[in-house]
Amino acid sequence: MSTYESNTGANVGNLQALTNSITSVASPFRAYLSDLHGKYQSLDEGAIADYIPELALAQPEWFGICVVTAAGQLFDVGNCDQLFTIQSISKAFIFGLALEDHGREYVNSKVSVEPTGEAFNSIVLDEATNRPYNPMVNAGAIATADLIKGNNGTERLKRVLSMFKRYTGRDHDINVPVFLSEKATGFRNRAMAYLMLNFGMVSDNIDETLDLYFQQCSIMVNARDLAMLAATLANGGINPVTQERAIQEQYVQDVVSVMLTCGMYDASGEWTYRVGMPAKSGVGGGITALVPGQLGIGTFSPLLDAKGNSLRGLKVCEDLSKDFGLHIFNVAKGDRDLEDWTAGRHQIDDW
Amino acid sequence: MQVTPPWNQRIKDFTASLNCSLTANLSGLRTMPKVVSIHSYRGGTGKSNFTANLATALALQGYRVGVIDTDLPSPGIHNLFCLEPEQTEKALNHYLWGECPIESVAYDVSANVGITGDGQLFLVPSSVKADDIARILNNGYDVKLMNDGFRSLVKALKLDYLFIDTHPGLSKETFLSIAISHVLLLILRPDKQDYQGTAVTVDVARQLKVRNMLLAINKAYSKLNLEALTQKVEATFDETVAGVFPLSEEIVQLASEGVFCVNFPDHPISQEFRKVAQQIAEV
Fold this sequence. Notes:
By secondary structure, chain A is of the alpha+beta class.
C-alpha cells in the first residue's frame, strides 16, 4: 500500500484552507459565539434608525457576529452575509486615508482629536482654533473627507473604495438610494460644512466633499467586513487573510486611539471603561471593535440605543471582553483563554 | 504499648479520595455527550448498518442515543429503524432550509427496535423525496447550520451519544463531522479501492485533529486470516482496528428491514458490534 505515501502532501494548500474553515466552524469559540447570539437574539429593545426611509427597511431580528483573529482565523454566526450601510464606521478609516494623504501635522491642523461628549451631529467647533472636535463627529468627518486626494469626485470615491477593499479583501458598492436620500436631506451636515468653510477649515469644493461624505457613509458592508476592518488594524494594518497592507504602519495608532476615545459617540467614556476596546459604531447597526495584536470583532444588529449604538452589538462586545479578559488595560487572567478556545479543541470539550 | 501507625489513616484517606475521584470521573463520563461519526471513503461498505447497530447496542445499555442521517444525496438508514417515509413529514432537509428546529425532526424509534429500558433512540432522517434531494443538490446548504444542528440536537434531547451517518467520500459535511467527532469510525473492506480511499480519509482526519479514530473491517471473506488482516491494516494506517466483520449472508437476508443485533442478538456478528460499541464507550 505505497499509495498511502503518495496521497500525503497532494494539494496541501487547498486541503489546509478547507480544514481551517471547517476547524473554525467546529471550534469551541464559534460555539461560544453561537451561545452569545442565542442569548441576545431575544433582546428587542431599541429602535431602528429611520431618519431616511431606506434605513427603516432593516429587520429588527437581523443579528450577526463575526470575529477574525490576527492570524486570519474567521468565526461567524447569524446574519453575516446581510449587507447594510457602513455609516459612521467609515469615518475612522477615512481619517487613516487622510493621514496617508497629508501627514499628521496637517490633518491635526484641520481636525482635533478631542472627545466632545456631545451628540454626533452637534454643530460645534473648537472656539480657539475653529477646528471640529474629532474625526468621528459629523463635522470632523466632513473636514476629514475634504482632505481625501483625487482630481475629481469619481477619483476620490474610487480611492476610498479601494482603501476599503484593502481592509476587507473584497469589492464594495455604494447603496445609491441611501446616498441620494442622505444627500437630499442632509441639511444639517451641509450647514456644518458651510460653517467650517467660513472658518477656512474646509476647501470651497463643498458639494464634491459632501457627496464623498454621503457616499462613504453609504458603502455596503456585512458583519464579516467589519471584523476584517478591525482585524486588519489589530494586525498592524495588514489584512490577516490576504496579507495586503491597508494603511501605513505609522498611522495605525492614530486611527485606533481616536476610535478608543471617540468611537462610540458620546458613550465612548463608558465604553472604554466597561469594554476597553477601540471601536466604531454606525447607525446602520454595525460595530467594529478590536483588541490590538489579537482580533477584530464585527457585529450587526440594527436596533440602536438612544446614543445610536447597536444594542446587541454592545452586549456581545461586553461579554467577549469580560469572558476572555480582552479589555486593553486588563491585567487579570480572563475566565477563558482565547487561544485555547480558537485553536485547541483538545483542552476544551464544550459539548 | 501499641502506637497506631499513622499510615493506616493515610491509606484510608488515600483510598477514600481515590473512590471519590473515581466516582466523580464515572459520572463525568456519563454526562459528557459523545459524538461518533461513521464514515467510509467508498459506498456500500456498511456505514448505515454499522451506525444502526452500534447506536442500538448503546441504547439497549440504557443510554440516550441520537442518529442523524447526513447522507442527503442518498439517505437510507431510516429503513433499518423501520421508519417509513410517510411517517416523516419533515426531515433534516427542512431544518437546513430554516423551516423548523432540528429537534422537531427527531423521531423516537425506540419501540421500532424493541428498546424498552431506560435507553432511548432517536433518528433524524434525510428526505427521500426526489424534489427535496434536488433542492439540496441545487442550492447546497450552510455547513455552519449543520454544526449548530448537531449541538442543538444533543442539548434538546439530552443525548449521551450522537451518531452521524455520512455520505461516502469527502465533502464539507464529512469534514465537519470528522472535526467535531469524539470518535471517528472508518469502515473499510479488504479491497485496494477501500485501502486507498481510507488513506486519504485518515490524512484528512489527522489534519482536522480528530480526537480519536477507530477502524472497522467489514465483509472479510471466509478464506482470509482475520488476525493477519487486522495486523496488516493496523500497521498500514497506524490506527486501532476495533472489529472485523466477516461477509455475512444473514445480514444480506435481513435486507435492511431491521437492526441485526436486535434480530440476532446471539450471532457472532452481534457480539462483534457490541465489542466495537464498548470501545466507543471507553474512548
